[in-house]
């Protein structure tokens, strides 16, 4: 019996039970039957949750790109692997076959090696959503270099922090990128970042916008001429199962981003398995995930998951609003997309627009629609289900995280009955538990608590780059022995999970995970600012937006508040990126603090939400009078 594909609800329960009772047999069989290995494992899993130590397929040898590309060539060489849909609808789409992708990745792998990149080196990839991005990622993985993709919307300062944290030896970028009607000068952002990145020895530059850029002699090299010269014969590196595959940064509750490290074999097995089952992907389907490859969703479900299954995956350079709000629907029709996977924030933005943008598009090619990145509210769920899914496509609300590598809780398309706003049931191998404030596991149904996972799964991140202690502290110490997700959840009467949102200092804005601490750090650098506190508040389209409470220094008191607010947002944009700008800024004389000096964010959150009821006990505050004052000045 094979466990790779689940065909019915009954079978789901069977596989699920098997995966819990005998995880080693379950994952061992999946790994053995569906991938090619240079060498088999000694042990399927080895772990010590208290030490945050997890290993899968111990001592196995494998290359993920051999599995994602080479393995398919005999049967699917002429099948389209990637459909590239450019930002400008008048520019022709590209269909890259598995043969062509193989050739391009091999050439790029040879270029990287010729530039001195070897197994274990870190390569930062800062590219727009163009084929070179996919090729660079896969080429790194082919030669065992650790890719660190930084979303091309991040600022120079944010890019520099990420490059320095993992001592990247090379940056792969482009002259610029197109997004809607904007052109973004990526190379100049890289130039600025590299003023403070001594580890970077070379920069490979792809051409996209043809804008004039400056090339630094001895450091910057145009990519295309190197590729033109390179051989397409490349021997992939033999990787250990636990060799790092990539680093991807995510926000934390302290200023520094966390470089989550994913390793090779477990990530490969889990992304392939979840892609196949959650989306119920069949051979000739066309899968489109609208995320950027700069986020985990793009890593796992634009690239690795689909390619490991020999699928056709769409890579879209543009935005849903350009040239108008029918772009998504137009692309679905154009490429006969069968699977569409997007974020609630995009759905809310599109639902707000005139229905005439979607109505002319029958969208009959669609079979499955999916949601990811934040809780999907009831209204958005129904709009998506009715207008995009035509009430006939299962809507899979997939809950997971950068740290989890792949989808953890989700309906399986055509198998699990869906329920609006519920991510529903855990995937095989995933053991969610809800914990109460006293750190006890909450049994039974119709309960809420902090969501933890009590057994390792193959794609769990193994560490934070350069800081295992922080990894342990962040994820394994709140509830000792368990992985703490940072999310709260509800389990309904039949055991379905609904994710209610973050329970820590991370705010999800338009599906982007933003830590409040780094934003506060950026604001506090403004010479007129003494202190600040950021909280999230509900927003119709973005899900959450940011509300900043700011205390000015005496020198700032006389300044024009609007100018200051603009300057502060510019600083945030510069330090982090425009996605972290504040929607509302309230200048205050103080912040509610406990006697130990901790800001009481709970109260600030309530004020930002406009909910003045029940602040709870504020008598323990150092300065209870400030609460009234802030409340009265709310904007
Ligand atoms: O709060 C959860 C929310 O997004 C967080 C993870 O963010 P990130 O690491 O950027 O990864 C996003 C893409 C996987 C989670 O802790 N989240 C993600 N998916 C859902 C969700 N919240 C509710 N429902 C979801 N389907």
UniProtKB/TrEMBL annotation:
Residues 12-68 form the Acetyl-coenzyme A synthetase N-terminal domain. Gene3D superfamilies: 3.30.300.30, N-terminal domain of ligase-like. It comes from the Bacteria. Pfam families: ACAS_N (PF16177), AMP-binding (PF00501), AMP-binding_C (PF13193). Keywords: Acetylation, ATP-binding, Ligase, Nucleotide-binding. Its EC number is 6.2.1.1. Residues 70-457 form the AMP-dependent synthetase/ligase domain. It is an enzyme of class 6 (ligase). GO terms for molecular function: acetate-CoA ligase activity; AMP binding; ATP binding. The keyword Nuclease does not apply. SUPFAM superfamilies: Acetyl-CoA synthetase-like (SSF56801). One of its GO terms (biological process) is acetyl-CoA biosynthetic process from acetate. InterPro entries: Ac_CoA_lig, ACAS_N, AMP-bd_C, AMP-bd_C_sf, AMP-binding_CS, AMP-dep_synth/lig_dom, ANL_N_sf. Residues 519-598 form the AMP-binding enzyme C-terminal domain. Belongs to the ATP-dependent AMP-binding enzyme family. This is Acetate--CoA ligase.
């Amino acid at each position: 019996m094979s466990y790779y594909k689940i065909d019915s609800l009954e079978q789901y329960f069977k596989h699920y039970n098997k995966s819990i009772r005998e995880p080693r047999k379950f994952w061992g069989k999946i790994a053995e039957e569906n991938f090619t290995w240079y060498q088999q494992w000694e042990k399927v899993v080895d772990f010590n949750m208290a030490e945050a130590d997890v290993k899968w397929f111990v001592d196995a040898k494998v290359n993920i790109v051999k599995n994602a590309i080479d393995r398919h060539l005999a049967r699917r060489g002429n099948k389209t692997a990637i459909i590239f849909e450019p930002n400008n609808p008048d520019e022709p789409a590209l269909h890259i076959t598995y043969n062509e992708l193989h050739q391009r990745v091999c050439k790029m792998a040879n270029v990287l090696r010729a530039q001195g990149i070897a197994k274990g080196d870190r390569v930062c990839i800062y590219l727009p959503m163009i084929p070179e991005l996919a090729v660079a990622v896969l080429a790194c993985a082919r030669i065992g270099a650790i890719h660190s993709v930084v979303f091309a919307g991040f600022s120079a300062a944010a890019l520099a922090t990420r490059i320095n944290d993992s001592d990247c030896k090379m940056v792969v970028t482009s002259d610029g990128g197109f997004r809607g009607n904007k052109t973004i000068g990526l190379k100049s952002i890289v130039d600025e970042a590299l003023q403070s990145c001594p580890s970077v020895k070379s920069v490979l530059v792809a051409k996209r916008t043809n804008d004039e850029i400056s090339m630094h002699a001895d450091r910057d090299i145009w990519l295309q001429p190197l590729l033109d010269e390179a051989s397409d014969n490349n021997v992939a590196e033999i990787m250990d199962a636990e060799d790092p595959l990539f680093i991807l940064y995510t926000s934390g509750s302290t200023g520094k981003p966390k470089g989550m490290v994913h390793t090779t074999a477990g990530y490969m097995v889990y992304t392939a398995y979840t892609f196949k089952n959650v989306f119920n992907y069949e051979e000739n389907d066309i899968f489109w995930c609208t995320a950027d490859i700069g986020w985990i969703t793009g890593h796992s479900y634009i690239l690795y998951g689909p390619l490991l299954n020999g699928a056709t995956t769409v890579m879209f350079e543009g935005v849903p609003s350009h040239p108008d709000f029918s772009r998504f629907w137009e692309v679905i029709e154009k490429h006969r997309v069968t699977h569409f996977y997007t974020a609630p924030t995009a759905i809310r933005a599109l639902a707000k627009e005139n229905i005439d943008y979607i109505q002319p598009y029958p969208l009959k090619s669609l079979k499955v629609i999916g949601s990811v990145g934040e809780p999907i509210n009831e209204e958005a769920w129904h709009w998506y289900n009715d207008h995009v899914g035509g009430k006939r496509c299962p809507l899979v609300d997939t809950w997971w995280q950068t740290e989890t590598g792949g989808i953890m809780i989700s309906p399986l398309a055509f198998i699990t009955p869906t329920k609006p706003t519920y991510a529903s049931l855990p995937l095989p191998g995933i053991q969610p538990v809800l914990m109460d404030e006293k750190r006890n596991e909450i049994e039974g149904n119709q309960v809420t608590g902090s969501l933890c996972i009590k057994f390792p799964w193959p794609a769990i991140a193994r560490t934070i780059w350069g800081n295992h202690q922080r990894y342990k502290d962040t994820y394994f110490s709140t509830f000792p022995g368990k992985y703490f997700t940072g999310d709260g959840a509800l389990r309904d009467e039949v055991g379905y999970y609904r994710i209610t949102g973050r329970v820590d200092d991370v705010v999800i804005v338009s599906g982007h995970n933003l830590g409040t601490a780094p934003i506060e750090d950026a604001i506090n650098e403004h010479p007129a600012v003494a202190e600040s506190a950021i909280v999230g508040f509900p927003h119709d389209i973005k899900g959450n937006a940011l509300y900043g409470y700011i205390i000015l220094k005496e020198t700032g008191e006389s300044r024009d508040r609007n100018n200051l607010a603009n300057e502060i947002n510019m600083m945030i944009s510069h330090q982090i990126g425009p996605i972290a700008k504040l929607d509302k800024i309230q200048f205050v004389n103080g912040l509610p603090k406990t006697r130990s000096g901790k800001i009481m964010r709970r109260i600030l959150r309530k004020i930002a939400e406009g909910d003045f009821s029940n602040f709870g006990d504020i008598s323990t505050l150092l300065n209870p009078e400030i609460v009234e004052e802030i409340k009265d000045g709310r904007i």
